[in-house]
Task: inverse folding
């Protein structure tokens, strides 16, 4: 693997122990994937240091103590607790205090403590042809497919890339790999982010780690719909890039999306395919749910406006727990716009930094016993996202009821599940 003089200096420890550790990891990654050299990156979305695991936080503190500093703009992924308004989620205080230790480490390293799976709504908007890295699959697929940036689905290596400003040249950093593998024709009208989420979950099952190309949309999907589509594709499959010609840079048409190769016969997606995902994730009892949750991926400002419109002068039914999750930045914008006042008055809980599958509800984690984290009993969660439905089942290990956003809000208002298909 060919390294520049500066990269070799980092590897040899001439720029400090932290950069040396990071370069050692990146060189190992690059050799494993046959990368010929490193590339310079312009942005990194990195690991938070998850408080459910004491050693995970200590790892971030260790890097900070070694003198680690972000070499490029870096945002921080979702955490295990809302470290500001943690009481409203019922999070154990010990868990919150540990998460705050990770925040201190990030401040030392110069990271932006966004604590979100949608940092683009918080202003981190890498542009076309920007090489980047991301620990979060939703960020990877959105930045690749909507913004035209270049990223792989990364793990902790995203932290090392942020520290060095380097990443091995392989995967979706190579233009030859940024081509469609299967064509899907959407032969139905889609309405709202949940429909796009179900479309993505259906297609992700088929395409696996490939690159789906879409045609046939009745109208151009908006940014929230593209976000929901990508998040679901990355959940049911290993998708890191999808192509909507005319939306995904630089692909103007289907022929270009396949790099000049023969365009394959389209797989047609019809309404029953979308509805089948709703049915698949509706296993709970309609009157026996514990939480109604919207905001997966973390809500945009436009979605916060939509929630406020639906809840204005309304009141969540007593006894119903209604969560809206978003980033700190979007919450601040919503506060300044008067939206939080409307949502608070309606009885909704606006939560940042975390979400149901990432907080103390999770049962698939092995928290440090000193934290005393005992997940509460949860029977069913109502969601408007196929991604969230999948991970609620996997991580909280309870039933789900998947419906549209408007129907989810009505569910919270009435206390009875309102189906998207009713």
Result:
């Amino acid at each position: 693997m060919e390294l520049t003089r500066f990269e070799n200096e980092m590897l040899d420890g001439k720029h400090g122990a932290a950069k040396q550790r990071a370069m050692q990891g990146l060189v190992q990654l690059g050799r494993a994937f046959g990368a010929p050299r490193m590339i310079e990156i312009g942005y990194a979305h990195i690991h938070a240091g998850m408080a459910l695991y004491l050693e995970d936080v200590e790892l971030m503190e260790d890097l900070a103590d070694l003198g680690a500093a972000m070499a490029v703009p870096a945002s921080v992924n979702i955490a295990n607790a809302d470290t500001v308004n943690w009481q409203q989620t019922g999070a154990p205080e010990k868990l919150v205090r540990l998460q705050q230790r990770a925040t201190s480490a990030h401040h030392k390293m110069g990271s932006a403590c966004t604590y979100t799976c949608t940092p683009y709504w918080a202003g981190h908007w890498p542009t076309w042809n920007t090489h980047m890295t991301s620990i979060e699959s939703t960020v990877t697929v959105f930045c690749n497919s909507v913004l035209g940036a270049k990223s792989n689905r990364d793990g902790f290596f995203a932290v090392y890339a942020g520290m060095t400003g380097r990443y091995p040249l392989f995967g979706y950093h190579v233009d030859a790999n940024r081509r469609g593998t299967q064509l899907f024709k959407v032969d139905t009208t889609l309405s709202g982010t949940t429909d796009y989420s179900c479309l993505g979950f259906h297609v992700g099952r088929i395409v696996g780690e490939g690159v789906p190309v879409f045609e046939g949309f009745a109208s151009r999907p908006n940014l929230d719909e593209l976000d929901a589509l990508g998040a679901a594709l990355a959940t049911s499959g290993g998708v890191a890039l999808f192509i909507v010609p005319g939306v995904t840079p630089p692909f103007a048409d289907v022929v270009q999306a396949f790099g000049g190769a023969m365009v394959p016969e389209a797989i047609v997606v019809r309404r029953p395919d979308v509805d089948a995902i709703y049915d698949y994730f509706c296993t709970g009892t309609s009157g026996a749910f514990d939480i109604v949750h919207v905001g997966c991926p973390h809500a945009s400002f436009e979605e916060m406006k939509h929630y406020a419109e639906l809840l204005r002068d309304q009141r969540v039914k007593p006894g119903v727990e209604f969560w809206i999750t978003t980033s700190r930045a979007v919450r601040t914008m919503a506060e300044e716009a008067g939206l939080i006042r409307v949502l608070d008055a309606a009885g909704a809980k606006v939560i940042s930094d975390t979400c149901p599958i990432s907080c103390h509800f999770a049962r698939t984690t092995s928290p440090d016993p000193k934290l005393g984290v005992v997940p509460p009993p949860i029977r069913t969660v109502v969601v408007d996202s196929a991604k969230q439905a999948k991970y609620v089942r996997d991580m909280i290990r309870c039933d789900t009821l998947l419906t549209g956003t408007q129907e989810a809000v009505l569910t919270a208002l009435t206390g009875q599940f309102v189906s998207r298909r009713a």
The domain at 5-175 is CATH 3.30.499.10 (Aconitase; domain 3). The chain has three domains: 5-175, 179-279, 281-414. Residues 141 and 240 are 5 Å apart (CA to CA).
